[in-house]
Amino acid sequence: MAPRKIIIDTDPGQDDAVAILLALGSPDDIDLLGITAVAGNVPLPLTQKNARIVCELAGRTDVKVFAGCDAPMKRKLVTAEHVHGKTGLDGPQLPDPKMPLQDQHAVDFIIETLRNEPSGTVTLCPIGPLTNIATAFERAPDIIPRVQEIVLMGGAYFEVGNITPAAEFNIYVDPEAAQIVFQSGVPLVVMPLDVTHKALTTKSRIDAFRNMGTHVGTMVAEWTDFFERFDMEKYGSEGAPLHDPCTIAYLIDPHLFSGRYINVEIETQSELTLGMTVADWWRVTGRKPNALFIGDLHAEGFYRLLTDRISRL
Ligand code: BDR
Ligand code: CA
Fold first, then answer.
1. What is the number of domains present in the chain?
2. Ligand 1 pocket: which residues have CB below 6 Å?
3. Three-state secondary structure call for residue 142
4. CATH code (residue 95)
């Protein structure tokens, strides 16, 4: 099968960085058309820079990186330096990127790509707030039916929230954008905290990256070491969830994951539960299913895939 054409929409973030590396290490499965940066974990000037740092680390200065929206559609930006550090990619020191940022705005790139590629052949992979994707859909509704699938990281049902008691970060930052995407009618695969909290690093999993003997392997080990301390303190878990790579792993091997095709709506009104993904897991409403909401993964298989692909870089 031809590799799947995707655009990664991202706010790197250590776990975003690992997702990008997983895609770059999998050229037989993934054809990365471009990376679009959005404001999220840290402001846009840092996320677009971090995306280029990650591409350079992988020796892929040919990847096109675009800067997109610098603020959510209707709200002030909320960031997550408390998790990812001041740069968004705290941990190992990496040089400033030399590869250029593309002149085109990320939203225009998304629109142009979906119009130029044959309909139904491009998958969007958002692993940050959904601002760029929703802005593209609002500006050019003709592209919506042309999207093959959206495989995103965001939301939670059983795990409820991480940035507030009721909401997961990516959805909370731009709930209006999330609502547009969830109501778009595009086939959605959602990786909520329910599954990503099962994709935990452990000492031996991080050692597997460190022991690769490659620069990329060492960087991934150091990033996950850094990223880990926050969740270990917060949840008392053995390691940290590698949220965002779940999306790319799903595209490569969907059998590692299981979930339910259900209705998911986004709370945009209540101050208390803003950004909540109201997931009808138990199918107690008559609302129309709009998302494959993932609940579980084969964690060993996931880390085996991740280690194998990262070792190729
Ligand atoms: C999500 O928020 C970010 O901090 C991570 O990169 C991930 O995309 C997890 O809630
Ligand atoms: Ca992210």
1. 1
2. 13, 15-16, 41, 80, 83, 127-128, 153, 162, 168-170, 243-244
3. helix
4. 3.90.245.10
